[in-house]
Amino acid sequence: MAFAKYLRVFGMKKSLTLLLASLLVSFRAPAPPAGADVQGPAADHAALAQAQCPNIYPAFIAAFQEAERLLWDGEAGGAILLMDDMLVGIENCRFKADIPPDILLAAHARFVEVCCGNEDYDKAIEILPACLRLFDAESVRGIFAGPVGAMIANGKTGPAGRLLDEIAAQGNKHPELMELVAMERTVMLWKMNRIPEAELNFVKTASMVSDAGLKQVLARIGAQSPAPETEEALSRLCGYVVRNMKGKESARLFAARRLLMCARKSGKPGDIPRIFELLLKSELPRQNLMDLYSMFFYDVAGSGAGNNVKAMLAAGNSLFARLDQPEDKRAVRILELDGLFAIDDFEGALKLVEENRALWEDGWAPITENKIRAHLALQKSDTAAGEKRKQLRLEAVERFRENLKHIARREGKELDP
């Protein structure tokens, strides 16, 4: 038998060879019923099995240690054959309960990993029925998820598709396995640049995929080489998750951030206010909205496009109405103040400071108002003439000087407005 052959070829001790070979015999030839009259070679095998099978666990470990040595020596084929013989035999062995379940599970997972890594995909498919009989669906998912994901990442999409088809056919009664198939098929189609099919599969199966699973799929397809068309498709999927997957908040938050990142990467800051309107309508948690608004505000404020900044300020007002903590409200208003400065709307800035006095720290409002009035005077002087122009410029200079005096004497805890 191949099992014993590899033990002998690679020089294991004779006693261990005999033990493992006898185990293999006992796996494939179950002991006769109690009281039966057994003679000849079968009696010898039964006696040997009875004596040796209680030692199945150390023998099992020894066999897999030898398989790892074969892998280290570049003998992947021999390692696969050795592990396959042991796993096929162990399923029907009356002493398999002596092997701790986690060890048995790890052995099957390692076998599938080695088979897929060595492109022996048929062996990985052949052991799937045994895995379904021996383990619960979540464990079977754990056995195959890593190898399938690695195959897809390495461009082995053909074999990965075959394996997914088998898992879908044999595990269709198990939601855990169907979720795995749904997730990996989307990633696989995306990897193959079959973007419309990937989008369709994602939308079709999103309801059966968990919160963490949806987030993982978006992260994996987003990590692939970006192109304008794939970024647009990713944005569509993120928008779908934000709008339709309520209750899966981790995925929705990831999708929201990714939507905004797509706008940033594509150089379209004007899309950011529109995205925020979507996020506000989708009822994401207030604190998360606050964090995202702070994170992406200056993409818009720094763009110099007045209409975009005004749209971002409008989104900020909508967010402000939902906040209940004074520090959060103050943070939004400070951002809006910067936005108003960015578009030279000093009258709007002055109005904002005056209308939100309850939010400011002691002494902050007068200093800030002085600075705003300095800019406003300078702005008005540009369109004034004669004595009026001169007065406005003098006012601006005096107010800027006062602001510089404040900066010189401040203790450090106050912000320069």
Question: H/E order of the elements?
Answer: HHHHHHHHHHHHHHHHHHHHHH
| Average pLDDT | 83
Give the DSSP E fraction (strand runs of 2 or more residues).
Answer: under 5%
In which range does the helix fraction lie? Answer: over 70%
Rg (CA only):
34 Å
- Major sheet: none
Q: Give the number of DSSP strands.
A: 0
**SS class:** mainly alpha
Uncertain regions: pLDDT < 50 for 5+ in a row?
1-52
The total count of helices amounts to 22
Euclidean distance between termini CA atoms: 83 Å
Name the shape in a single word: elongated
Features of the shown structure:
single chain, 417 residues, mainly alpha, 22 helices, 0% strand, elongated, disordered N terminus
What does it look like?
The structure is a single chain. With 417 residues, this protein is an all-alpha fold. It has a domain at 249-343. The protein is 75% helix and 0% strand. It has 22 helices and no strands. It has helices spanning 2-9, 14-28, 41-52, 56-72, 76-90, 101-117, 121-126, 128-134, 137-153, 157-170, 175-191, 195-205, 211-222, 228-244, 249-265, 271-281, 286-301, 306-320, 326-342, 346-355, 364-381, 386-409. Helix 9 (137-153) runs antiparallel to helix 10 and helix 16 (271-281) packs parallel to helix 18 (306-320). Mean pLDDT is 83; it is low at 1-52.
